[in-house]
Every structure is written in C-alpha cells, then in structure tokens.
Amino acid sequence: MSKVNQMHRVELSGPKVYHLPNWADGDDNDRMDVITDIIMRYGRDPKIATKAVEILKKYDIKPRDYVGQAAALLKWVQDDIYYVNEPGERLQDPNYTLKVGYGDCDDMAIVLCSFFESMRLPWKLVISGRAANGKTLRYIHRQGKLPKADWAHIYCMVGAGPFGGGKWYYCEPTIRGVPLGWDVVAAGDQSLPELMKPDASAFGAP
Known about the structure:
Elements lengths: L2 H5 L9 E3 L8 H15 L3 H13 L7 H15 L1 E2 L6 E3 L1 H7 L1 E2 L1 H14 L4 E8 L5 E5 L9 E10 L8 E4 L12 H4 L5 H4 L10
Parallel strand pairs: 2-4
Antiparallel strand pairs: 1-3, 5-6, 5-7, 7-8
Helix pairs in contact: 2-6, 3-6, 4-6, 5-6
C-alpha cells in the first residue's frame, strides 16, 4: 500500500485543512482517492445539503430538475468561491472553503462534488494536463490506465440524474461563466494557464 493510500485512511474529522507532506508518494489515482474520501464524508454532512438547497432555491431551480440543479451549483461555486493558487499542497474540507470563501482547483472541486453528493447527483473527478508531446489530455478517475502526463488541473463531471443512465457533463468550477458541459481540453483554448505551461505543484507533487 502506498504512503498516500495509508494517509487516505486518516480520520477526516480532524483538522479543517489537510497538509499532505507525502502527496508526492503515490500516483494521481491515489491522490484522487484521498479527495474522493473527503467528498464522500462531507457530502453526507447536513450542513452541505442545507447550503446546496439554499443555492437551488436562490436560483429558483425546481425539484427533479437535475441538470438545472447541477448548473446552478456549478455557477454558485464559480461566482462565490474565489480561485487562488497555493504553495505546496493542502486540501480544505468543503465547510472550511465555504467559510473562508476561497480555494484552489481541488478545493473548489471538493465543494462542488460535495454539493452533488448531498443531492445524490452522481459525480466523477477529472484531471487534465499535457503529455510529453505537448498534447492536452484528460483522465477520469479510475477509468482505464492512467496516461503519463504533467497533470496540472482537477475538475469533475456530473450525471444528469440520481438514478443512472443519463448524460454526463463536465464541470469547470474555477472559471466564471463557463456553462455546464464546458471542458478546457475540448475547448482547446488558453483559459487555464497552468495547462499551457504545466507545473506539477498544481495537482501533482509539491
């Protein structure tokens, strides 16, 4: 078992900000396992569900409008959580991020997926980066073999409803105004400078 997997078994009721000195010891699937554990725990916290419903009511989203729910929660995170870069790697639990109002890409993905989890909307973590040949890649957590790349950014996907079988949409929480379904890899633009000149500290080793 890798040191990252050992670390991901820690008791998550501890500190609100997790400093991860052994973040470099595993691969990116291991890192996404850690983030998944945090999302699954806090997605069952009634405070997260209450905040999600508050947002949906603010945008007048009707019950069972699952795509509308996902779009509204994405927009709120884009607009209300201030994106910042950070030195090294730390992970914030979503309640902490909601309190302070800022975070980096993993913190914003944690908040958004915790909202989705609280609403029983299916979600998946996604990373993007550049291969050695300069091609921009994306990888969905635990789906197939992890390609070799400088992974620089994490975001997510959400399913169209809680009961399966529907369409999946990419979610980019760090860029204000991009709609549900927008994906930086498919767009091929320069909205995320970390993908133009990858820096492993953005998602990989500090």
